[in-house]
Amino acid sequence: MRRSRLPYACLSALLVLGGWTATGTGQATADDSPTKAPAKASPAPASEGLLQAMRRDLGLSKEQAEKRLAAERTATALVPKARKAAGSAYGGSWFDARSERLTVGVTEDASPATVRRVEATGAAVRTVEHTARELDRAKARIDRLDAPSGVSSWHVDPAAGTVVVNVVRGERADNDVRDFVSRARAAGPVTVRTVASAPTTFAAGTVGGDPYYTGNVRCSIGFSVHGGFITAGHCGGVGQQVRGWDGSYIGNFQGSSFPDNDYAWVNVGSGWWTVPVVLGWGTVPDQLVRGSAEAPVGASICRSGSTTRWHCGRVLAKNETVNYAQGAVHQMTKTSVCAEGGDSGGSFISGDQAQGVTSGGWGNCSSGGETWFQPVNEILGRYGLTLHTA
């Protein structure tokens, strides 16, 4: 990895490419089911920089941020146990920031024994109308519909027990939008919500920073894998050459998918190497990556990118279909984290656990917005890659 110009190069050097690590924004794709077992979350204390970022972006004190991170680690570990305990009555799960506990939905027909098994895991229980399987099937039927540009995205909201269809403000009266919503309602329980604007990808023209380049497009590196790094698919096609922040040759896109998915991987050579680090940009210390345990809805999450650097927020939804101008991308995770052009492909991380690569969104880091990422375990499974961990 060629890099020497940053004052924190000693840690950056742990990263794949010279400054690439967790920076970036790109579109992310999500695979249906991860094929690699996520590593256990480490109880290592959070850095001062991370706590400061959570204070800035989430409005938490240092003590509140430390308590939140500990509770989220516990909740993340509980998800598979609680889902198994709920069995066929499982209605989804999410992290409740107020109680700082994992909440699990179970249907009304769940037996008392089932409820007790779920509670025994340490999760809170809430009665819901629909199972997670029913909601997922409804969303899958909506995925088969052609969506007009006035429809931003749609996802399952387990807490509300519905599939949420997001419509761009001012477009709800459009005939094509109304027709789509009507057909979506026929697919299952649907709630329509309004969003500020349509989503866009976060690739950008060539500018300075610590990015990687394909032609005149700048994106950000996501996570190191053995043999290369993963990033967003909309940043480049198979065979395209990739250059680093210093203009030197890194490698080529070995796999890429967009739309439908938004993920890719690039091989690394010519003096570059991989390391399990996400760049903190001096805002926070560079973050070691120790696994890829999936954080639940409601958990805090942070993003590193070559344009806006380090920002934090919350996981808002999973398995969301995002309707970009280039086509729909499926199984994305939505967050309240901001991003801007050039952040595409960059890292989303929760504690020391890799979550995904930046895809796109709306808004910016001055006025706020929402950003989607492609879950990392899906990308690893799709290409048979192994995450480089500390």
UniProtKB/TrEMBL annotation:
Ranges where the record places region Disordered: 25-48
Alphabetical UniProt keywords: Disulfide bond, Hydrolase, Protease, Serine protease, Signal, Zymogen
Biased segments, Low complexity type: 25-47
Keyword match Nucleus: no
Signal sequence residues: 1-30
CDD domains cross-referenced by the UniProt entry: alphaLP-like
Pfam families associated with the record: Pro_Al_protease
Domain Peptidase S1A alpha-lytic prodomain: 130-184
Membership in a protein family: Belongs to the peptidase S1 family.
Protein's recorded name: S1 family peptidase
